[in-house]
Amino acid sequence: MIWLLPLLAEAAEPQLDCEYPQYQQEMNICAAREFEAADALLNAQWKLTSEVMKQRDTEWDSSWDERPGYFDQLLAAQRAWIAFRDAHCASEGYEFRGGSMEPFMIGTCMTKLTEERTAQLKDLIAVD
To answer: Average of pLDDT values for 77-103?
Structure first.
């Protein structure tokens, strides 16, 4: 997420209107802000989902099943997903590699995939 660091430094600018950004630099900053917001929601959902999975582990008789517990499997999946998201979005940015639009492409990709993952984590603990 090294692409995000210079954008976050610029994001401190208070007068930026992300509804109608005018320049590429503004678009990049707004994309970084959107990702930060999506990431915060993901982290909040992670807390909820992981707590439910830990509870399921305490209720599950694993004496006959050698597979990982609910939480351990979730953690492995999350780590794999983060690696996928970061690599996939970096590859999407390569279309504009080295250009001013590359951070925007990466940021919008990261936001989209993060929002999708947040929904997936919600679905894992949804009660029908």
So the answer is: 96
Percent of the chain with pLDDT over 70: 88
pLDDT at 2 over 80: no
Report the candidate in 42, 31, 37, 10 with the shortest Cα–Cα distance to residue 109: 31
Could you give all domains of the chain from N- to C-terminal order, each with its CATH number?
Answer: 4-11+22-58+69-125 (1.20.1270.180)
What is the per-residue DSSP string for 15-50? T--TTS--SHHHHHHHHHHHHHHHHHHHHHHHHHHH
| 119, HSE (Cβ side, Cα atoms, 13 Å) | 6
